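=== RUN LOG ===
request id: a7f3
mode: sequence -> structure
chains: 1
length: 269
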Amino acid sequence: MLRDQELLATIESQEVKDGELAFWWLGQLSVLVKTSKHILVFDPYLAPSPMRNFPPPLAPEMITNADYIFGSHDHGDHIDRNTLPGMMSASPKARTVCSKVAARSVVAMGIDEARIVALDEGDVYEEDGLRITPVAVAHELLDHDPELGYPYLSFVVETDGVTICHTGDACLYDGYIKKLSGFDIDVIFLPINGRDAGRYSHNVMGNMTYQEAVDVVGALRPRLAVPGHYDLFTSNTADPFPFAGYLRAKYPDLKCWIGEHAETVFLSK
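=== RESULT ===
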């Protein structure tokens, strides 16, 4: 696994034109995406911890060129209090994108409100050739704050000739796929670790099963599907290869990527 300066040099040297993208999966649902004009970081969780199955490939303060840092919801492995402030400090032009619910926690970390893009389903954010559409998602339950909106969000990002969907932690509910079906998605990042009574009773919120994730991919038909959230914690892991096998059997014309942390993946139209 590439780490630290070697990984940063690889990201920096990767050429990306309009209509192309490159990404580096950093574990769990943490992904760094490079388009022709933007560096997007989704759900970065880079805190060292004895509970991790592998060390973080980067320290937060090493990422100095992020444009947008997304946090799908206010759980520590998605909006990390030991990661986000350091990344925002190191990348002075970056903005944090999160739900209006999670924005309260982001402000409490000392991040300037002017640098926070707080969204709810129904909002659309456009700036600098980039369009962000948030979609409410269930994380075991489809929670809703009557004043601030949905705490769990998927993000669709359209920029530089590509469309990226990062679901965040997600369980299906009626209407979720329909909300995403209007987008021509190039790459989708989604969890496959499932859910059960044991984890739920210990306050570990669940996600789609790999079968459900395959059917999301089959309905949305992205050019590439990337499963995640199966690798980091021994108590909450899954095998990604049944996902790949089921996708191959049920939707043989669709592709997925399963690989190593910090591996360069390039997608060109």
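=== NOTES ===
The first helix runs from residue 4 to 13.
The chain has seven helices and 13 strands.
=== END ===
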